[in-house]
Design brief:
The structure holds two protein chains of two kinds.
Chain A (H helix, E strand, L loop, with lengths): L6 E4 L4 E2 L3 H25 L3 H28 L8 E11 L2 E9 L1 H24 L6 H20 L3 H19 L6 H31 L7 H10 L5 E3 L14 E3 L6 H9 L8 H8 L1 E2 L2 E2 H16 L8 H4 L5 H10 L4 H8 L1 H6 L1 H23 L4 H21 L3 H33 L9 H6 L15 H4 L1 H15 L5 H14 L8 H27 L29 H22 L9 H6 L11 H27 L16 H8 L4 H72 L7 H22 L1
Parallel strand pairs in A: 2-3
Antiparallel strand pairs in A: 1-5, 1-6, 3-4, 7-8
Helix pairs in contact in A: 1-2, 1-4, 2-3, 2-4, 3-4, 3-12, 3-17, 3-23, 4-5, 5-6, 5-12, 6-10, 10-13, 12-17, 13-17, 15-16, 15-22, 16-17, 16-21, 16-22, 17-20, 17-21, 17-23, 20-22, 20-23, 21-22, 21-23, 21-25, 22-25
Chain B lengths: L2 H25 L16 E3 L3 E4 L5 E8 L5 E10 L6 E4 L4 E3 L4 E8 L13 E10 L19 E9 L4 H18 L5 H25 L14 E9 L4 E7 L1 H20 L9 H20 L3 H10 L1 H11 L4 H29 L3 E2 L5 E2 L5 H6 L14 H16 L8 H8 L2 H26 L1 H6 L1 H21 L3 H22 L2 H32 L10 H4 L1 H14 L6 H13 L4 H8 L1 H17 L8 H4 L6 H19 L2 H18 L2 H8 L6
The chains are: A mainly alpha, B alpha+beta.
């Protein structure tokens, strides 16, 4: 095969764009300035900290504006050409694999970019107040800016390798921010846990990339055979065109060679490419290919799914997210709720062509998402810690999104990403205000070091995040309460709030999915159950935090009550800047749902769906009745859940100050759920302990056996040389000395023969001569 | 007397003997010796053995005279060109007879048939003038009959070079610096340090110039077998040993790395106390640099071996004299371990030499065998050699070479010298050891194992991949169990060098490129790691991981650099450690699928111990023991001067590795062409897409 015969495949027409890089450059600049000079700026004067925060927020505003501008440019294009590409430079070029530093903006990444930059800007603004007075604020903002940069890189990177840079970059920022208060060993351990869980996912990502590169390099079973088939049957979409050379001025965006690539857009085009008879040759070859007896596509998907599970906290790798709440609350809002954890959904949506090729893969993703949604919702039900509740809720909501992706409903999943970003950020930030207020209130309380098992039944009185320490906050934090309520309602999926629209869209699409290998009805039913649980814990969380009257707060320490601060006006508890952000997000949490996705079944025009999939056929009006029925069912379940949650939260749980521990009704189940179904212990026993054991064993073996062998050889050599020395001194040299001494001795003895008498000599001569004669005679 | 001390003493004796041997080898006369009372014979004398040309059309004269007492018959004169070109012509060419005491002048004219200089063109040309004669001293085989006159060949080197002898300067400049060091009075430690620094800066400048003018497009078929800055001259004609230096894509980055790390090491040696014979220390350090540079640029196997051994001596003394508490043990362990490898290497060299085909030296002198690494690569096929000791010849030699180099890399299970040497060595020596010395092993694997014995390399591919995976996983696991920061970094080197071996075992363009990129990047990253450990050790005199904690707020700059280096080492994308790793994975996967997937699991293990190290040093509560020692003693200017350049390289190459990859691309293409059967070569050579 030579250059001219390379097969070229048409891809979507891309519009070169020279400004996408600014979206990333702003936060990167902020990160560099804050990270390298933030500390010295902060120390320069009283206005230093404000300056650093100002820089961090300003770059975010710049990024958001840049994102909006890019979005408008994209929208101005005809629907089938909606792709902006900003090519900067070549990252690496080896064999037939080219990886460029290029950013691509398609509708999906545009939606992500908008969410990241706009929600990010709001949360940056919130952080200015939240982190006020923290000595490490420069570090916080540097990491937060860097996170936004990495997240945009992940979303906009044209090549998977570039995405991987962002993918690990967000992991790094997550690590740095979870462990932000690093004096506490617990925080750092949580950070390490998050990083390591993500690294397991990254292994899957790398494995997926290895398979993707090998796919069209002719090194996997698929390669040469495919090319032969294509050559035998002249293709239309797959057409050999003259080699275009290395010139970049050629509008190369409309065709790519059938060669190893890490751009999913190209792979998507390969899969859709057809030959002259209209046969999708590449797709067929991919379907047929196996490796180690497993369908190749499934393996690739499995690798990437592991990565998604790590980043988006899906089940085998979900356990890091609750611990990640150790970070400052804005971090939990931005990274561990609104943006980073949805990266897996983004990747899944982009890999939908693989899902289309392998129904098993889609089913696997849906089932794991469903299990995660159910399990996390169940665990969330028993949480006492407001942030852990929200964390489990995030895991559960991500599970919903994966169910949708697995069923092929990418647009619905992305819709939920958007609404979830708004209402979950709203919930977290409201919780942040609440935690601040609680921390002020409980500041003087003596912390009781309680074990995890003890905390199930009694709160640590100094813990500002424990529901059981919250009473009567409604009056002191009215606006926060409003924000939290809106968030909770949206999360519960009650009508009008945005969660309702996106969740029901997902459930409906799952019910009508045709690609799953298991009955969609069952998945729908289970997902509905999880939705009911969601409403339940949302209501429970809200009423535990803000329900109850001040009068009930009998156990609160006098003097530490919030009421004491009343004289200073309510801004003491609800700083204006922070509450404004909460309210903006609350408004968004209400309006964004109907605005972006009023269902067609109710006469609406789901804008987001059309934006993401402009060429998809319009839904059949005949299905509208079913959709409405499903939606009504969803509303009923959510309302029921909310009602139960409210009733559950009204039951007095803990009497403050009393050492009498009141056990919940289903104690065993409660304990099981409280311990997260022991999944953490299981993971520890299956991975951490064996690895630690292996590590110790390897070290011991290294010292004792491997190095021992070396030392043994040295000792043995030395022993042999000693033996040699001994032999030399006493045997070889001894022999020499023996010969010498024997000569001397015999000489001394023979001296006596020298008598000087002639007769002795004559006798000697005679005897000697006789002896000689005898010897000569015998010798004959 | 204890064992280490005893071994140390033995080692010292051995060293003396070795020095004597090397001196002897160098002193072997360049022309064959002959007896004073000889038979009457013609005696050919040449006015020069080397004609240098500078411009096209230039003519140079060669005077051939007969100093003997019989007529000298010149059977013919011819020019031997590499690659079948005809850049030089000579007149007259017909047979001549030169009476005793007479002489004859030959004119050699240079008319290049290829372009010299410019992109893709060679900058050196070599050819030889062969003069067939009847002087018995030039008989290739002294036992041949005097009638076999054509076997009597005297050669003259013809050469053109557009470059000054940069590589000789690069290699030997530090040697010139040693006397300078001893000119500085003993009681002026600052002066000694500055002289050492200045001396080490010169090779760096030369190396930078070499990299800047290196032409990656000049590959094997373009001339000089892809080599640049070639210096080629006979050294010991009787053993066909040549002085042959040159760089190609495989070595050019290593030259830069060695020069850079040497400067960094001199900078890191500032903390060596003045009373510990500073001049001796720096002299040995510079001598070490000579050996390192020599290994990377030598292209004659014998010369390579000389440099390989030369580097051992200073290393041995640097650890053994300026090291930590168990320095003698570590030094002798390092030395004997490496020497064991050298013995195998020597055996392999001799075996290859005797199995090689007849060749000519650069000046045209015919020889029965060759040490020329490029001739061994391209002109010899060792597959047809008779089996040795029941093993196929290439396989046996390959194993000998592999073990010799595996000790250096080091590959599990031959790695145990490394942690001990690192722990005992002073910071600067650890930097050189990890930054450069380990790379010699992998470099030699590519230059010698892969290039000379490609068939055996393919034969052992699976085994080497397994060894690589074991090194990676086992090294990571061992690193995880360490409580000494330096030991941890040492074991991480074992794991990271395993990636280079994995790329080597794959033999694909991506894999080999990844391995060489990883060699360079590991050099800079590990240097940073050891420098950082040294910073802490200089202040606290301990390296125990559990002794620290909470340093991040106390030493913020230190924490930043530490985090950067450790993140780079754990392969975080965006920093340079990632790029080599991922290329090795992508390149090795098509060849060794399962093994590569297993090796990639080290992503998790590596992260685990790196994060643990960061956490134990920088996070958690501050250990009050260091209240006075560390507070307010963040990294100082001198330490920053060594760390920041490396950090910049790490970040730059992490974001933009293309310059590094371009630099080595040509060399890798040639090497992969040698390693792979022709069918694969064409597949690899397919032009990529226009983007």
């Amino acid at each position: 095969m030579n250059a001219a015969d390379t097969l070229w495949v048409k891809v979507a027409h891309a519009q070169p764009d020279a400004w996408l890089w600014t979206m990333l450059a702003f936060p990167l600049l902020g990160a560099i300035v804050c990270g390298l000079f933030g500390r010295s700026i902060e120390r320069r004067g009283p206005r230093g900290p404000g300056l650093v925060a100002g820089i961090a927020v300003a770059v975010m505003v710049g990024a958001a504006l840049s994102a909006v501008a890019a979005f408008l440019r994209l929208r101005a294009l005809p629907v089938e050409d909606r792709l902006l590409v900003d090519h900067l430079f070549t990252l690496l070029k080896v064999e037939r694999l080219h990886v460029d530093v290029a950013f691509a903006l398609d509708p999906l990444s545009a939606v992500f970019a908008l969410v990241i930059t706009i929600v990010g800007t709001l949360i940056h603004g919130f952080s200015v107040g939240y982190m006020h007075g923290d000595p490490g604020r420069w570090r916080f903002f540097a990491c937060l800016n860097l996170f936004v940069f990495a997240m945009l890189l992940l979303g906009l990177g044209a090549s998977r390798l570039l995405c991987f840079v962002g993918w690990e970059g967000v992991g790094l920022c997550s690590y740095l921010l979870i462990g932000f208060w690093h004096r506490e060993t617990g925080n750092v351990n949580a950070a390490k846990k998050a990083f390591l869980f993500n690294r397991v996912g990254d292994w899957g990502f790398v494995a997926g990339m290895m398979l993707l590169v090998a796919l069209f390099a002719g090194t996997l079973p698929l390669g040469p055979d495919l090319e032969r088939r294509l050559a035998a049957n002249p293709p239309t979409l797959v057409a050999p065109i003259p080699h275009a050379g290395e010139s970049t001025s050629v509008p190369a965006e409309w065709a790519v060679p059938l060669a190893p690539t890490l751009r999913l857009r190209d792979l998507d085009a390969f899969v859709r490419a057809q030959d002259a008879d209209g046969v999708p040759v590449v797709a067929e070859a991919l379907r047929a290919a196996t490796l180690w007896g497993v369908p190749l596509v499934f393996l690739i998907g499995l690798g990437f799914f592991l990565a998604m599970a790590g980043k988006s906290a899906q089940l085998p790798l979900a356990l890091w997210l609750p611990d990640a709440m150790a970070g400052p609350t804005p971090v939990s809002a931005l990274i561990h709720a609104a943006t980073m954890v949805t990266a897996g959904v983004d990747l899944a949506a982009r890999l939908s062509f693989l899902v289309g090729l392998s129904p098993g893969l889609g089913t696997l993703i849906a089932l794991i998402g469903l299990t995660t949604a159910l399990v996390a919702a169940l665990i969330a039900v028993v949480q006492h810690d407001i942030k852990r509740l929200l964390a489990y809720s995030t895991i559960s909501q991500l599970g919903f999104m994966f169910v949708a992706v697995g069923a092929g409903a990418n647009e619905a999943a992305v819709f939920h990403v958007v609404t979830h970003a708004c209402f979950k950020a709203c919930l977290f930030l409201a919780a942040g205000v609440l935690i601040h207020a609680q921390a002020d209130r409980l500041g003087a309380a003596v912390a009781r070091r309680l074990t995890w098992a003890q905390r199930r039944l009694q709160p640590d009185p100094a813990d500002p995040q424990d529901f059981r320490n919250m009473r009567g906050l409604r009056e002191h934090l009215p606006l926060t309460r409003l924000g939290f309520l809106v968030g909770a309602v949206a999360l519960a999926g009650l009508p009008v709030a945005s969660g309702f629209f996106s969740k029901d869209e997902m459930l409906w699409r799952v019910l009508t999915a045709g690609t799953l290998l298991v009955s969609p009805t069952w998945i729908y039913g289970a997902a509905l159950l999880a939705a009911g649980l969601t409403a339940f814990y949302s209501a429970r969380g809200y009423f535990l935090a803000f329900g109850g009257e001040r009068g009930n707060d009998a156990g609160a320490r006098p003097g530490h009550d919030l009421g004491q601060a009343e004289g200073q006006g309510h801004s003491a508890h609800e700083p204006v800047g922070m509450v404004t952000v909460v309210l903006i997000l609350a408004v968004a949490a209400i309006v964004i749902g109907p605005l972006l996705g009023w269902p067609a079944a109710w006469g609406g025009h789901p804008w987001l769906e059309h934006f993401l999939a402009p060429t998809a056929p319009a839904p059949d009006a005949a299905t509208f009745a079913g959709a409405r029925r499903a939606q009504i069912a969803g509303v009923l379940v959510a309302s029921l859940g909310w009602l139960f949650g409210w009733m559950f939260a009204r039951r007095p749980q803990i009497v403050h100050g009393s050492e009498v521990v009141q056990r919940p009704r289903w104690d065993g189940l409660h304990r099981l759920l409280w311990n997260g179904l022991h999944l953490d212990d299981l993971a520890r026993a299956l991975t951490v302990h064996p690895v630690e054991d292996f590590s110790r064993a390897a070290d011991a073996a290294d010292r004792r056996w491997v190095d021992g062998l070396v030392r043994f050889v040295a000792r043995a050599t030395l022993a042999i040389s000693r033996l040699g020395g001994f032999i030399d001194r006493y045997v070889v040299d001894g022999l020499v000395r023996a010969v010498g001494e024997a000569t001397l001795w015999s000489g001394r003895r023979l001296q006596r023969v020298q008598t000087g008498r002639i007769n002795h000599y004559t006798l000697g001569i005679t005897v000697g001569a006789a002896l000689l004669v005898i010897v000569a005679w015998i010798a004959q | 007397m204890n064992l280490p001390a005893q071994l140390f003493r033995i080692g010292r004796q051995f060293l003396k003997a070795l020095v004597a041997l090397v001196a002897l080898a160098a002193a072997v006369p360049a022309t064959p010796a002959h007896a004073a009372n000889r038979e009457p014979a013609p005696r050919l004398e040449l006015s020069t053995r080397s004609l240098k040309f500078t411009q096209a059309g230039q003519t140079a004269s060669l005077v051939v005279s007969n100093a003997g007492d019989r007529p000298l018959l010149i059977d013919g004169v011819s020019v031997v060109h590499a690659g079948g070109r005809s850049d030089f012509s000579v007149a007259p060419v017909i047979a001549q007879t030169i009476a005793p005491g007479q002489s004859l002048t030959y004119d050699v004219t240079f008319r290049p048939t290829v372009a010299l200089g410019g992109r893709g063109n060679p900058r050196q040309l070599f050819a030889a003038l062969q003069i067939a004669n009847n002087d018995p001293r030039f008989a290739r085989d002294p036992a041949a009959s005097p009638e076999a006159r054509t076997a009597h060949i005297a050669g003259v080197k013809l050469s053109v070079s557009l470059d000054p002898p940069l590589l000789s300067w690069l290699v030997f400049f530090p040697l010139l610096g040693i006397p300078l060091l001893f000119l500085v009075p003993r009681d002026r430690p600052a002066g000694t340090r500055i002289v050492a620094l200045l001396v080490s800066l010169v090779p760096l400048a030369i190396a930078v110039r070499i990299c800047a003018t290196f032409d990656p497009g000049l590959i094997h078929k373009a001339g000089n077998r892809g080599l640049q800055f070639v210096e080629h001259a006979p050294w010991i004609r009787s053993f066909s040993v040549e002085y042959f230096l040159g760089v190609d894509g495989l070595s050019v980055t290593m030259v830069l790395l060695s020069a850079l790390v040497s400067v960094i090491a001199v900078g890191a040696s500032w903390s060596i106390p003045a009373e510990r014979n500073l001049r001796g220390y720096f002299a040995l350090l510079l001598l070490l640099e000579v050996g390192m540079m020599g290994v990377f640029v030598a292209l004659d196997f014998f010369l390579f071996f000389v440099f390989w051994e030369l580097m051992l001596l200073p290393m041995y003394f640097l650890i053994g004299i300026w090291g930590g508490p168990r320095k003698e043990y570590a030094a002798i362990k390092f030395f004997l371990y490496t020497l064991a490898g050298s013995v195998l290497l020597l055996l392999a060299i001799i075996a290859l030499y005797h199995a090689s085909k007849p060749a000519v030296l650069v000046d045209g002198t015919p020889t029965l065998h060759t040490f020329n690494l490029l001739k061994l690569t391209y002109d010899n096929d060792f597959g047809s050699q008779a089996a040795l000791l029941g093993f196929a010849f290439p396989h046996l030699v390959w194993v000998l070479l592999f073990v010799a180099f595996a000790i250096k890399v080091p590959i599990v299970p031959l790695h145990t010298w490394l942690p001990d040497a690192h722990v005992e060595a002073p910071t600067a020596i650890s930097v050189i050891l990890a930054g450069v010395l380990l790379k010699m092993g992998t470099y030699a694997l590519f230059r010698i194992n892969a290039a000379i014995l490609p068939e055996a390399t393919a034969w052992a591919s699976s085994a080497t991949a397994w060894l690589a995976a074991i090194s990676i996983v086992y090294g990571s696991l061992c690193a995880m169990a360490q409580t000494d920061l330096k030991r941890l970094v040492a074991y991480s080197s074992v794991a990271h060098m395993g990636f280079c071996l994995l790329g080597f075992s794959a033999g694909t363009t991506t894999g080999v490129t990844g391995a060489i990129v990883q060699m360079f990047n590991h050099g800079t990253i590990t240097s940073m790691l050891f420098l950082l450990v040294g910073v802490l050790y200089d202040r606290t005199h301990t390296r125990g991981l559990d002794d620290f904690g909470g340093l991040a707020p106390v030493m913020p700059r230190y924490a930043f650099l530490f985090g950067l280096a450790f993140m780079a080492s754990l392969g975080l994308p965006g920093l340079s450690g990632f790029i080599g790793e991922v290329m090795v994975f992508l390149g090795a996967f098509p060849v060794h699928r399962g093994i590569t997937l297993a090796a990639a699991l080290s992503l998790v293990l590596t992260a685990a111990y790196h994060l643990t190290a960061i956490q134990k040093v920088h996070f958690g509560p501050f250990n009050p023991r260091w209240e006075t020692t560390l507070t307010g003693r963040d990294v100082n200017g001198r330490e920053l001067a060594t760390l920041v350049p490396l950090a910049l390289i790490v970040v730059f190459l992490g974001c933009y590795p293309a310059p590094l990859i371009d630099l080595i691309s040509g060399g890798v293409a040639d090497l992969v062409a040698v390693m792979s059967p022709p069918a694969n070569v064409t597949a690899d050579a397919v032009d990529p897409s226009p983007r």
